[in-house]
Design brief:
about 280 residues, alpha/beta, D-Maltodextrin-Binding Protein, domain 2, 2 domains, six-stranded mixed beta sheet, TAT_signal, signal, PhnD/SsuA/transferrin family substrate-binding protein
């Protein structure tokens, strides 16, 4: 009888521990990763999802894609602290520098440029001819494609009607349809669109070279998880499987096959920060 009571007590204790286990064992966190909308939603997801799955597998840190309908919507998630990792250049203004986002990497590609472009058969040959015409941009948050290029128009006193396409593909769609006469663009995305659509363009203006976008982490990400994710991104271009994924994803958007990610401490983005020192007030 005593044996039976002891066994029942042991069984009850075991069941109690088992019931408590889910609350005692913390599930691994899921971090939201938000790249700016450089392409349409579907193409953005097709480019990033295989990369994110690879990083999750290699780092042991679960990442999940979170993008808004437009680039401005995605940046709104970031500013509302709804995401923990980003691929962006929207966080280098003085006020956003104070939010604590840390650069840990960047995409290694040829230099990018801000551009103002027209179709190759357009009658417009110089910027001044765009006065009072419609010009499309991805959105109000696009630093290279909108703020750099629109600042150039403002500094030259060339008034234009600003049209936002939601992302770079949306802006180019406005150009191809004839609804606008020119587009403010990121040269990398111009090249990708030209390859995918078989169109020809003419560049009316181009900025000095800039580094491609930054990989950044929120100040709320534990150092251990940040280091694991940063290492997985930096090592991806050295791993056979990683190279294949990068080449396949890059091919979708017109990137060179060797486009990969490298470590960064953020020092490459001085030119982005300097822009805000002289930019027209409405673009700061």
């Amino acid at each position: 009888m005593q044996h039976r009571r002891q066994w029942l007590s042991f069984a009850a204790a075991t069941l109690a521990l088992a019931a408590a286990a889910p609350s005692l064992a913390q599930e691994a966190p899921v971090y939201r990763f938000s790249p700016v909308n450089q392409y349409g939603l579907e193409l953005t997801a097709r480019y990033w999802n295989p990369i994110i799955e690879y990083i999750t597998a290699k780092s042991g840190v679960k990442l999940q894609l979170k993008i808004g309908r437009t680039s401005a919507d995605t940046t709104a998630y970031v500013l509302a602290n709804e995401v923990e990792f980003v691929f962006s250049n929207h966080l280098f203004s003085p006020d956003r520098d104070q939010l604590g986002w840390k650069v840990f990497g960047r995409r290694q590609t040829p230099p990018i440029h801000s551009q103002i472009v027209v179709l190759a058969d357009s009658p417009y040959q110089k910027l001044e001819q765009l006065a009072n015409q419609s010009v499309a941009f991805p959105g109000p948050e696009a630093l290279v494609a909108y703020k750099f290029s629109y600042a150039q128009l403002l500094n030259r006193n060339i008034p234009v009607e600003v049209v936002f396409g939601g992302n770079m593909d949306g802006a180019f769609a406005q150009l191809a349809s004839g609804r606008v006469k020119a587009v403010g663009a990121n040269s990398q995305l111009t090249e990708g669109w030209v390859k995918r659509e078989g169109k020809k363009i003419r560049v009316l203006w181009q900025s000095d070279p800039l580094y491609d976008l930054a990989l950044m982490a929120s100040k709320n990400v534990p150092e251990k998880d940040l280091k694991a994710v940063a290492k997985a991104f930096a090592d991806m271009g050295k791993d056979v499987q990683g190279v294949k994924i990068l080449a396949a994803s890059g091919n979708l958007v017109g990137l060179l096959p060797n486009a990969s990610f490298v470590a960064s401490n953020g020092s490459e983005y001085v030119s982005y920060r300097n822009f805000y020192k002289t930019a027209p007030p409405n673009l700061r």
